[in-house]
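Question thread 4412

I'm putting together a teaching handout and wanted feedback from people who do this every day. The idea is simple: show students a protein as raw sequence, then show them the structure tokens that encode its fold, then repeat with a second protein so they can compare. Below is the first pair exactly as I plan to print it.
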Amino acid sequence: MPSDAPAPAAVDWRPALPPSVRRRHDQVRGAELLLMPERVVRLNAEGGRVLRLCDGRTTVEGIVTALARDFPDAPIAADVPAFLARLRDRGWLR
């Protein structure tokens, strides 16, 4: 029976925004945004920080390592790959 949980992101995957998606910081609202054709998604601070590391060169493992240095007590190793997989499933990452 298939699970409703997103598949974990592959460790060697190097996530990046596709050409149709842009990340911007809205200074008026103090928020990170994902801009897509006919859609805007407001990210929380943590989501914005994760997506800033999605440059197409850094692996998921590298992203986890970078964030774990700054947040040693957070469940980064489980949460970040699942978050990235959800965004990929929605077409917001490649």
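The second pair follows. I'd like the answer to focus on this one:
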Amino acid sequence: MTDRLNELLLTPKEMAAVDAAAAETGIDSFGLMTNVGGAVAAAAMRLYPGALRFAVLCGPGNNGGDGYVAARFLAESGAGVSVFHLGDPDKLQGDALRARSECTVAREPLASYEPRPGDTIIDALFGAGLSRDVPPEAAYAMTAIRKAGLPVIAVDLPSGIHGATGEVLGTAFAASHTITFMTRKPGHLLMPGRELCGTLEVADIGIPGRIVRAQAVSGIAENTPARWAHLMPSSKMETHKYKRGHLVVFSGTSGKTGAARMSALSGLKAGAGLVTIAAPPDALPENSAHLTAVMLREVGGIAALEAWLEDDRLQTFVLGPGFGIGEQARDYAAALSDRHLVLDADGITSFRQEPRRLFDLFAGGETRLVLTPHDGEFARLFPDIAANTEIGKVGKAQMAAKRANAAIVFKGADTVIAAPDGRALINTNAPVWLATAGSGDVLAGIIGALLTQGLPAFEAAAAGVYLHGMAGQRAGKGLTAEDLAAHVLPY
């Protein structure tokens, strides 16, 4: 499987379309199921060679069929195997029915399963296709297995995890290892699904890559450099500070200036040629005492800002970190509506009563606005989208991006970056210790630096999130925002 194919994330519906398209080309669907079951059996023997028994839990659909094939291969290899089925196995259809018929391992109802020491569980109950809460019989088995502390190998996705959203449907297995096929699904990367997958393996079962790529229409992928590295500014010798752009970060009032300095320093470290903090008069001494490479300019209100904006070289701004909530933030954003703006923290919250005012400012034309909300801030700007339980984090970010004509950075352990045209990336490189005060200020500065160097809004946001994660990895556990900013590096 090529690296490019491995970057794709297919929803369960898209993967079903892949299976159908493969069958239409003449590829034997039962042959594919056999390849799946063989890959699962091989992983089980490799990972748990000392297992006293493989307890294969088979569901009522094709995931269960995969389980029957795996059970057959394990039995043929001499391993101890028991099969426990959910529902009436005589009601299976198609390939799953054939798989059950060819599996001679004795079957028992799932309700009869009792954990034994030395058991290794193969979870072939539902996979990624489940869209309703786990039924009680399966939930009871999951609880018993969890209490017994037994290892679980999940086929495709731990049962109970929504394949498109990563959300838990009532309850779910916490797998030790998950084996999926051809490419991953959003539920493998979105929380809490990511944590419940354990180690993740992608097996090639013989579907041509062209068929997989043809069905990847949702525009969802993992956030990797392959998505934006070709747009990064080059490090040629003739580059000078003006070619690398001028980033402006707005400071709060006296006593609230640290967040802006964090953003400004991060922007400088991420490659902006010039960085200026624009501060009100009372914040000038405080900022001046802490700044060296970052420049400082007095901007005491909207009139001063509008006069400064007559210099059309000023094209990229960060507004929000420590700035304060209120009319001044709204006025500043309005004055910047024809420039590139990263709106964060207080800047976002300032529009909670009238988000449409913000969206109208940046409607139409190229995407100039980057919004970086966490869950609470997202709900303030997009309350109806946030409350929609029919869609997951990716869908919410995509809807918000389209509504606001903005690149959305929906922050969290599984940060999602979305564009108005429907593209969405899920970030995976952020260490848990990034969850610290000031971390978002650093991210805003990095994104601002990439915007000012010429990256489009979506790619600047995606690259900024990735570089932010890399800085967190370099800074290590126990980092503060100051440590994080110090470890920011250009790509």
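Top answer:
Good format. For the second protein you could add a caption like this: The radius of gyration is 26 Å. Residues 29-47 form the longest helix (19 residues).
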